[in-house]
Amino acid sequence: MRLICMLILCISPLAFAKKPTPSPLPSPLATAVFSHLQALLLSESSPFYRLDVPVTVYQFSQRADLGDLRVFNAAGELVPYALETSAAAQQNQLSQTALRFFPYGSKASIAQRDVSIEIRSDGQLSAQSHTVSKQQQLSYLVDASQIKGQLESLILSWQEANYQGQIRLAASDDLQQWRALGSTEIIQLDYQGQTLSQPKVELGGIRAKYLRISSDTPLTLKEVRLQSSMAQSAPAKRAWLAPVTAQLKQAGEYQFDLGVHAPVDKLELALPQLNTVVQASLASRANPAEPWQSGQSTTLYRLQGKTSEAHSPALSISPNNHRYWRLSVNQSSGGLGQGLPQLKAGWTPQQIAFVARGQAPFVLAFGNARVSSAALNTEDLIIGNVVASATAGALLTKAAAPATAVASAPSSARSYGLWAALVLAVGVLGAMAWKLIRPVQE
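Above: the chain's sequence. Below: its structure in token form.
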């Protein structure tokens, strides 16, 4: 009993020793807690920017969902960002068009048929004007019937040197039913060589064939230009990794480490020898500690044709961010023979959209498993339709992130203490066994 008590006394201080605890992350986050920084290059001035997620993020991010991604400005401040899937990566193409417009008189002038307007078969307006006093020409019809996209804004030009007044807007698709769009003020003033001008009228992305501009004060338009937008899906960009050579684990089993957590949806397998046809299956997992998840079964081949080689086509799979892949080949017909297969992985990159708050340069920061996602929905981030392009620059040199720093003493001393306690425990137990066995032998 005395020996057992001694053993408990030796081990108990180590059992209650303070365990290492991660140091808390700073709030707000700083670039120092991330293992990697990458410069962002801006193409033009804009409040919003968008770029493809660079391969380096998939390579060095410590979260498979890219939750440790952040964007910082030059002052080291976090700026809002969104992480978009390829389906959301649509851009609105903006264009400006000069529109035809027609003076449209007051009710009195209409009764006198000062202006007659007809809609042609193609939807365009044709007008025949008669003598109308300028005081009655207080409205204009604008023909936007040939515009296919959304109507974003009007830019007006008028003859009056100094003008300030309210205009009312209405929209129609048939010149019969009109819906009011509200009113706004336009202005152009010249004073001592200085000009104050506000000729732009926001339309808010509506769709309409015709617009009506009305004013309570005489306004003589010279030009009406429309800024419209057309939603366009850019051709799907694809990123491909350089082919990765397999490691042979056992007969017929080949494993690949892609080195990235990218949303892979295409796989190309290159066989080592010509005139090979095999049945094979794929499996994958995010990290070595997880079990393999079964994937597709397929026929792989590499055949010599008359003029060129024929290869099995690329495999289309449901996007996943697994880094490790396994190819299992049926060995009943000889397998792959000598050599190792190669795997080439491809994906459609996700996109990052961010607000350019503060001063450039902006940087991407990533690489800290303890950081959770702060990405917003694109609809909550992007206001309007003007989003400029950004590109990823070079990785920036920095010290390794202190993601694994601990607040307690080094763990090596605790390890040595545990080993000493174990050795002492073994010695005590041996002594107890010897004392118990000795009387029996005597």
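The first strand starts at residue 36 and ends at 42.
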